[in-house]
Amino acid sequence: MIVDDHPVVREGYRRLIDLQPGLRIVGEAEDARTAYSQFRALEPDVVVMDLTLAGASGIEAIRHIRQYDDAARIVVFTMHLSAAFALKSIRAGATSYITKSSDPKLLIDAIFGALHGRRSISPDVMEAIAHDRVSGAGTGLADLTPRQTEILCLIARGWLPNRIAEELSISLKTVRNNHYQIKTILGLETDAQLVWFALQSGLLPEA
């Protein structure tokens, strides 16, 4: 199953994957909510998941799918080259993490690898992870919980607290408490700074 919010991109995935012997696309989704319902209905062997979706992000979709099926195989295929974001995806339950700047063969290898229980991480992400570990660098993203990361993404997109609470099925108080905690953890004071942080951390596309 393919999860991406761009129909043209999904069509490109379909053409690439359908050419591979033994692989067949059984469904598509454009957002986290549809991805979860489609997964339950179709029970695909592997999900190819983008992280930047309308509404809740791919991390939220990964967490929901894995809560439903802890054996689900999910290959993240994303533009985000961020060590902290890759690790957060893996912790949420992703099987593999491949960037869209990688050779398309890496995506196919990751899909077949997931079918056989193997984890795959593209070389550029491995390099970013190694660099962060060696240098001790960090954007602060690693200090946020998956839920806080999710809320940060939605705040940075301009969503109001009521809408975030409804989308993530949590209370308004929880949204506001996490909003405050995110600022405290990151040492930021305004929502404008949160938006800038999200852009610099690769949580949001720059255009």
TrEMBL record:
It comes from the Bacteria. The modification 4-aspartylphosphate is found at residue 50. InterPro entries: CheY-like_superfamily, NreC/VraR/RcsB-like_REC, Sig_transdc_resp-reg_C-effctor, Sig_transdc_resp-reg_receiver, Tscrpt_reg_LuxR_C, WalR-like. Residues 1-115 form the Response regulatory domain. Keywords: DNA-binding, Phosphoprotein. Residues 137-202 form the HTH luxR-type domain. It holds the Pfam family Response_reg. PROSITE patterns: HTH_LUXR_2, RESPONSE_REGULATORY. PANTHER family: TWO-COMPONENT RESPONSE REGULATOR (PTHR43214:SF43). This is Response regulator. It comes from Litorisediminicola beolgyonensis.
